Model the fold of this input.
Amino acid sequence: MNTSTNDLLPSSLLNDDPRTWTFSGEGVFSWTVFKLYRARLFISGARYDLREPFILDLCYLRTLPAEMIVSASMDEIKRLRNPSAEALQSWSDALIGIVPDVALDDRLVGYFIPGTGVKFYSATDFLGEINDPVFAEGFAAIWLDPETRSTTLRALLLGDDAGR
Done:
């Protein structure tokens, strides 16, 4: 289903980049028996391309502290990209200053800008940004890398029928 879905995105993000975004796919991420969030991918072209801007929208299905979100993110970036300890610490410090605790139906939205970094939004506000393309690529890898922990979610986000 590739339709324009700007009405689903935070207005603060659309103020930063008013282009027409296209829905690519969505799925639910679960850990053991717990459903943690629904993820949706929005793209700026005909298909996902890491060299083009894209948006990853997470809608949380349970309460999670920011520290848990940041820690899990750093663990996955480390597993997928093995950056230096200094880079991981720097990214962790930056994320902890951006990512809030989340509750049911809260949204965290990442706007990925190739060669620049990623901007973070809630459903209503700009939360902050990390201007580091290496971080942005590693962070996106959590969901979109072929070695992600949830290959089914990746396939659904990319609109691959094999994930259904």
Q: What stands out?
A: The beta strands are 22-31, 34-43, 54-60, 107-113, 117-121, 126-130.
